[in-house]
Specification:
The structure holds two protein chains of two kinds. By secondary structure, chain A is an alpha/beta fold. Chain A folds into two domains: about 300 residues, ABC transporter type 1, transmembrane domain (ABC transporter transmembrane region fold, Up-down Bundle), CATH 1.20.1560; about 230 residues, P-loop containing nucleotide triphosphate hydrolases (Rossmann fold), CATH 3.40.50. In chain A, the strands form three sheets. Chain A has a six-stranded mixed sheet with strand order 6-9-10-3-11-12, with helices on both faces. Chain A has a four-stranded antiparallel sheet with strand order 2-1-4-5, with helices on one face. In chain A, strands 7-8 form a two-stranded antiparallel sheet. Chain B has a six-stranded mixed sheet. Chain B has a four-stranded antiparallel sheet with strand order 2-1-4-5, covered by helices on one side. Chain B is about 65% helix and about 10% strand. In chain B, helix 5 crosses helix 12. Chain B is elongated. Classes of the chains: A alpha/beta, B alpha/beta. At the A-B interface, helix 1, helix 4, helix 5, helix 6 and helix 7 of A face helix 2, helix 3, helix 5, helix 7 and helix 8 of B.
Chain lengths: ~625, ~575
């Protein structure tokens, strides 16, 4: 439960319900052009509409595993045998055995009870196996869903992203798995036990049936009403905790801002509203839990009291002592525990299941993404010139454009360096050059074809992007290096490794067939591996987006010179001014203004370029 | 040494646990009293049920069933009360604890993010407070669990001592099974968790490399690679279920065997006429109560977790809050003095005996290579941090003597990477101390935004100043201007700008510097990376390795090649005519 709370507590920002109009709402928002973060909240309305994704998800898995579920139900009948036999066995043991002065017969009946427990154990074993067959594939589906949609989600431009959402989703999957199993178990056990007891009672004495069935039915009806209220308060509590977490996280990242603005009181008051809202929801949940306990308790005890009160009448109707005791045993040891387990299952795991499954459903897409709408242009590309014509781009319709009216030609064999202050839009430009972002205005053509019209696989063979965050995955070194050139042989790899200065690293890792774990590698070493990967690829256009920023200036020089001497075009988003000095041409980004030229010309023409040169030297 | 500290920490943790427990207030008392009542009623119940059955068999109806009904009612009400009391006590303790921890965190200020990552901070203020907040309920329930269990055993002895003996002989087997369960399931879940960790790690790598993967068109390949361990996870999961079924069955069989054994002995005694049929029924129920012994371990486990959470909170509460003085307002002016100021970070000296004074209304540029202590120096003026030695003095009053309100209304501050707070853009600019009564903050917000050249882009947003921050993704430059607007809206005698133009284009930077140029009634301290900024300052303080290398005008310093190298200008370039930019 605590883990669950942590998980939901550390969740994303999202535009939740509007806060109170008058109260200052203090909650930091990290600037986040990333459209997929911060759109989801745990739990919308708990009453599920027919097109609810969470409900769809649960129903579809129930449908898919119909056969296993039937098996589960079948075996749980066997599991219910002890509950079914207990009343009868106790009744007979007393009537025919102990009270009739035949203790051995009584013991035999008890032995029969023991036998039924063994049968029940077999049933339990089988039901749990069947449960595994329903729950584990569901977990697999959820993991596939999470992984599939996370890997296919567009990358945030120019920014490494925290792994938080990954961990969170993985944990959500576990919560759903456990809660789903618990709910299936309790509901299924309840149904079987109640059915068993009803059949058992009908066999013993049909006259007592109403005494048992009516109170249980009434209790369940009342319980379902209370459950709705509990679900609402559970959701309120989780939402309040999420807001509190968001607030606490923004205090963590923005403490400087809070202190410098003297806003400690303001922030504390705002966070306290969430604390209060959570306490209020939990308090309300407590009252309702009490009510549900009372209702379920009454449902379990009323049958017993009714049976006992009606005892003389029942005995008058010809019921025996044993029968009466058997009926009491059925209710006390069958119905009561089953009701309690059901209530606990639905109020605990059940509520979490509702809230969490919704969250997983909302933050992921279906395992099979819709087919890409891109229509490859039937025309064949001619050459490898990259040409931008009047390109404009903004992250939202109302944001200031990051790139505007940019026209630029990068001929085959060019060596271009892009410089500009941080945050000015260099990585956005990379996105446009590679086709990862589509321009709002103008066109980007590569080999005469618009990037949007390229077949993605073909494009991937013709141009390489190595971003700042080097992607090295757990696998063999060879897999990593030939990621973009599956056919590259050792000689090709050797040549590239030697040229880029990676021999020591390769030897240290243990050769091409050694497994590489990215974690212990330094950022620079990871960058070196991805650079070799880019070098051996057949692509005639290479774009390095600060891909050498974690390497020393000397290593960077060796690498850039090697790439410049490689066949094809090189575009370098510069991290150091030395990259610009090596380039044939330099593009300076200043707001939406862009100037292109060589070093000497830009020193005279661009005051920003002068400042940038100064800053780099100074740092 | 460490033991002594450990003991001290453990003592303060214990004190914290007691504090938290006490905060549960009257609900803890209700919970304890109710728990005793519930235990007694639960113990009376089987006996009364037995008596009712016996009466029934003797055809005597009346008193016993009424008594039974009353006790059932008491049990049900007490169970419901327990639920309510646990929830109320926990909600109360948790919310008081959260308020306390959050207030403390805010009072400590900048040292919190230095000591705890954001994730840690969130986990402690939200997660650990909830765990520790249940300490009163956990402790009371752990103590009371034993009452019905022990009472059940005693009741078995009272009905017939052989029943009690039977139970006590069987009970150790039950406990042994439970103990084995805990061990085995821990091993299996470790295996499961590690496979799950592998998938999570691969997914995290793939997420971090999302741009590379997208550019390589390799999403499908990556999904397959990340999911490769999934079948293994499936197998571990199935094995866990199998282990659980084994344990459930063992548990079930042991308990059933215990119950049947007691029933058999009871049946024998019933046949011998030593007990009544009602007592037999009662005995089977007492076995259930007595088996509650096994609930002790999880109850103690919860208590241990709550204490561990309290220990983590204790680490947060151990940080010392920033203290403010209560000095009356200093005469206005805005004269800032550093008197032999030293700041250390670990063994390193960041600022070394800095003596500096900034005349009222002047512009001081702070320059130096990165790591020379520029931002630390600027931060001292806003008391983001206090010096380890020496004093920073504002208009003859050392900063720690100023009241919170006095200090914050005198000094405003803007950063290169601000974090905006609030629901709307307007909130984000107005964020901070409330304005003087009767003055409409809205006017200030617009004026400040205009001065910071943020007005135009804000007006382009769908709801202008009332646009929600979450609905307005901003670029680095826009964010910087928002932060600048915030500092202008609260500008007092002193404005500190720490590299606020890093992401601005030259035109915007120029416009902002003009606005700043007009604020002649304020002392302006600017951390500068561009020579254009330093050029417009009255004086430049040049920091090197934590010391002042020079203090003069930009013009005087420009003749020094080392100074020019700071801005990357070599000998071949004349001093650029930079009359345009100041904020930088």
């Amino acid at each position: 439960m605590t883990a669950v709370r942590d998980v939901l507590a550390g969740s994303d920002h999202a535009p939740g319900p509007e806060p109170d109009a008058g109260a200052a709402h203090v909650e930091a928002r990290r600037p986040d052009p990333d459209p997929e973060t911060g759109r989801h909240r745990a739990g919308g309305p708990v009453t599920w509409g027919s097109r609810d994704p969470a409900r769809e998800l649960l129903l579809s898995t129930l449908r898919e595993h119909r056969r296993e579920l039937r098996g589960l139900a079948g075996w749980s009948v066997l599991e219910a045998v002890p509950a079914l036999v207990s009343g009868l066995a106790v009744a007979q043991a007393i009537d025919d055995g102990f009270l009739a002065g035949r203790p051995v017969t009584g013991l035999l009946w008890l032995a029969a009870l023991a036998g039924s427990v063994l049968l029940g154990a077999v049933g339990t074993r089988q039901t749990l196996t069947r449960l595994a067959a329903v729950v584990e594939p569901f977990r697999d589906d959820l993991v596939r869903r999470v992984v599939g949609s996370s890997v296919r989600r567009p990358a945030p431009a120019g920014r490494a992203e925290s792994g938080g959402d990954v961990a969170r989703l993985t944990q959500h999957v576990e919560i759903v798995r456990e809660a789903y199993a618990a709910v299936l178990m309790t509901v299924q056990q309840f149904v079987v036990v109640v059915l068993g007891v009803v059949i058992g009672l009908a066999a013993l004495a049909p006259a007592v049936l109403p005494f048992v069935i009516v109170p249980i039915t009434l209790a369940l009806a009342a319980f379902s009403l209370v459950l709705r209220g509990m679900a609402r308060r559970q959701r309120d509590s989780i939402l309040a905790d999420e807001r509190l977490s968001d607030g606490a996280a923004s205090v963590g990242t923005g403490m400087r801002d809070v202190v410098a603005c003297g806003a400690e009181e303001l922030v504390a008051a705002d966070l306290n509203r969430h604390v209060g809202a959570n306490a209020k929801a939990l308090g309300g949940l407590g009252w309702l839990t009490g009510a549900s306990t009372l209702i379920i308790g009454l449902g379990g005890w009323l049958p017993v009291l009714l049976l006992l009160a009606a005892g003389p009448w029942l005995l008058g109707q010809g019921a025996t002592t044993g029968l009466l005791l058997g009926a009491v045993a059925y209710t006390l040891q069958g119905v009561q525990p089953a009701l309690q387990t059901l209530a606990e299952g639905l109020t605990g795991p059940g509520l979490w299941l509702m809230v969490t499954v919704r969250r997983v459903a909302e933050t992921t897409t279906r395992p099979d993404p819709p087919v890409e709408l891109a229509r490859p242009d039937p025309a064949r590309p001619v050459g490898t010139e990259l040409h931008l014509e009047g390109v404009g781009f903004a992250y939202s319709p109302w944001a200031a454009p990051v790139v505007q009216e940019l026209t630029l030609s990068i001929p085959p064999g060019d060596h271009l360096a892009v410089v500009g202050p941080s945050g000015i839009g260099k990585s956005t430009l990379t996105g446009l050059l590679t086709g990862l972002l589509r321009p709002d205005a103008g066109t980007v053509r590569f080999g005469g074809l618009e990037l949007a019209g390229w077949d993605p696989a073909e494009l991937a063979r013709r141009r390489v992007l190595i971003p700042q965050e080097a992607y090295v995955f757990a696998g063999s070194l060879r897999e990593n290096l030939t990621y973009l050139a599956p056919d590259a042989d050792d000689a090709t790899l050797d040549a590239a490794v030697d040229l880029l200065g990676g021999r020591l690293l390769i030897d240290r890792v243990g050769g091409y067939d050694a497994l590489v774990d990215p974690e212990p590698l330094s950022s620079g070493e990871r960058q070196l591996l991805t650079l070799v990967r880019a070098y051996v690829s057949p692509a005639p256009l290479v774009i390095l987006d600060e891909a050498t920023c974690h390497l020393g200036a000397a290593a960077e020089g060796v690498i850039e010179r090697a790439f410049a001497a490689r066949h094809g075009t090189l575009v370098v988003i510069a991290h150091r001014i030395s990259s610009a000095l090596r380039a044939r041409r330099i593009l300076v980004l200043d707001g939406t203004e862009a100037r292109i030229g060589d070093h000497e010309a830009l020193l005279l023409q661009s005051s920003l370029y002068r400042d940038l040169v100064g800053h780099w030297h100074g740092a | 040494m460490s033991t002594v500290q450990g003991t001290a920490a453990s003592r303060t943790t214990n004190r914290l646990v007691l504090d938290i427990g006490r905060q549960a207030g009257p609900w803890a008392v209700v919970l304890a009293a109710n728990g005793v009542l519930l235990a007694l009623a639960e113990l009376a119940l089987p006996a009364l049920l037995g008596a009712t059955i016996d009466d029934l068999l003797d055809a005597a109806v009346g008193a016993s069933i009424v008594a039974l009904a009353v006790v059932v009612a008491v049990v049900l009400l007490a169970e419901a009360t327990e639920d309510v009391a646990v929830a109320q006590a926990t909600a109360r303790s948790t919310s008081l604890l959260r308020t306390r921890v959050l207030r403390h965190v805010l009072a400590v200020g900048q040292r919190v993010p230095e000591s705890f990552s954001t994730g840690e901070l969130t986990a402690r203020t939200v997660g650990n407070t909830a765990e520790a907040g249940s300490v009163a309920a956990d402790a009371i329930r752990a103590a009371i669990t034993m009452l019905p269990a022990v009472g059940g055993v005693v009741a078995l002895f009272v009905i017939d001592r052989w029943l009690g003996v039977t139970f006590l002989l069987g009970a150790p087997v039950l406990l042994l099974v439970l103990w084995l369960f805990a061990k085995e399931s821990a091993d299996l879940s470790a295996e499961y968790l590690s496979t799950q960790g592998v998938i999570a790690a691969r997914l995290a790598q793939a997420r971090a490399g999302a741009r590379s993967i997208a550019a390589a068109g390799a999403a499908d390949r990556e999904v397959t690679r990340v999911l490769a361990p999934l079948p293994g996870l499936h197998r571990s999961g199935v094995r866990m279920w199998r282990a659980q079924s084994r344990v459930t069955i063992q548990d079930m069989l042991t308990f059933a065997a215990l119950e049947i054994a007691v029933l058999a002995v009871a049946g024998w005694q019933l046949a011998a006429g030593r007990i009544s049929p009602g007592e037999l029924v009662a005995a089977s129920l007492y076995v259930g109560l007595a088996a509650n012994l096994s609930a002790l371990a999880p109850a103690v486990g919860r208590l241990v977790r709550a204490r561990a959470a309290a220990a983590r909170l204790d680490e947060v509460l151990a940080l010392r809050p920033t203290r403010y003085g209560s000095c009356p307002p200093a005469p206005s002016g805005g004269r800032v003095e550093f008197r032999s100021v030293t700041v250390r970070r670990g063994a390193q000296t960041v600022l070394d005996r800095i003596d500096l004074h900034v005349p009222p209304g002047s512009v001081l540029a702070v320059v130096g290579r990165s790591g020379s202590g520029k931002s630390v120096l600027a931060g001292l003026v806003a008391r983001l941090q206090d010096p380890d030695e020496g004093q920073v003095v504002l208009d003859c009053v050392p900063l720690p003597l100023l009241s919170h309100h006095e200090l914050r209304s005198a000094v405003s501050y803007a950063f290169a990477r601000p974090t905006p707070f609030g629901h709307t853009i307007r909130d984000a600019v107005a964020f901070g101390l409330p304005g003087p009564a009767g003055i409409d903050l809205g006017v200030d917000v617009v004026a400040a935004s205009s001065a910071a050249r943020a007005d135009a882009f804000i007006r382009r947003l769908p709801q202008g100043y009332d646009t929600s921050l979450g609905a307005a993704p901003m670029s680095g430059g826009e964010l910087q201007r928002l932060g600048l607007a915030r500092s202008f809206a609260h500008a007092g005698r002193v404005i500190v700008l720490d590299d606020v133009a890093a992401s601005l284009d030259t035109v915007t930077e120029h416009e902002i510097s003009c606005a700043l140029q007009e604020m002649t009634d304020r002392t302006r301290i600017l951390v500068a990376h561009r020579s254009s900024t330093a050029a417009r300052a009255d004086r430049v303080v040049w920091l090197e390795d934590g010391r002042i290398r020079a203090l003069a005008s930009h013009h005087e310093l420009w003749s020094d090649p080392a100074y020019r190298a700071l801005f990357g200008a070599g000998d071949q370039h004349p001093e650029p005519v930079l009359t345009t930019a100041v904020a930088g």
